[in-house]
Amino acid sequence: MKSLNYLCLLFVLNSAFASDVVVETDFNTGRGILRSVGQQCLVYTPKHVVENSDGIYISSPHVKEAKSTILTEYPQDLAILQLAPEYQSMCSSSSWRDDGNRVRSILNGVKDAVLSFRKKSGSFTEYQLIISSKDLHTYFYVELKSANRQFMQGMSGSIVKVGEYPVGMLISVKDNIGKVLRLDTIANISKSVVDSFLSDIEVLAQNSKDLGAYKSINNNKGNTAKPKQINSGKWIFSGNITEGQTITKTIIAKGNTAYRLTSKKQSKSVRVGIDFISPSEKVIKDDDFYTGKDNYTFGYGATDEGEYEIRITGIKGDIGTYHFTLEEAA
Question: Is CATH 2.40.10.120 what the domain over 2-189 is classified as, yes or no?
């Protein structure tokens, strides 16, 4: 039974990094890589697969023939497709990884790779490859290890990976040598288009040197829920709370900023505790008071940038109300 469970787990892990989707037009068939950006689900695929086509249809193991449109094209034989909003959930199975940040070091030290070919049925086949040569940037080239196998029509757009890390997308084949567009190149040349879809918090997270500062982004890769937007330096929290209940709010701090919290006097008073939690899970300020107190005010400082949690806990009393205003003080 343990062996069976291990094999099932291995299949799930491997299939997650096969080419994400099948791309079909009236004239061509290829593959593509999904990428979730903001509230959009995008598809990278070779330009020659979709050019001069009126209809472009995307199929995954769970969704068949979702309609898409060409968002933009690049001379590196790359196109970005945009799926309709109702198919946004397809990006939950995306193989996209961290903008290909490890591609350069991997290609400098590894010769073996695998091409993962997604069939329209949803199953996949793997082809063992040898990385035969590489350009200074943009492309590298692969050959099949086995003389009994060959590249087939429709493979363009398939993911090439090393271990479980995707390093590129197969663009074309000539004389049984595959031309692969590097994943970091795809990220670089499409950056301006991708950035136009990012939410405010995703832009901050992308430019931050602290990978742990924006937990909601890093913990929800592939999640299609709308990311939180940044407020303009003022937040208002209000509602009901009772003893033992904890309510958590999140704010985005720019770092090296002071904040002031004011509690508006409530007729239904309840004793509450407030904890301010930094991105590194450190309690930087805590206090407790009755919400019936007249405009209780205190402040705290956010040294680091990122997402801060405000945890409001009912300590004593029946159900009561709270109304807090949090503002940047400096």
Answer: yes
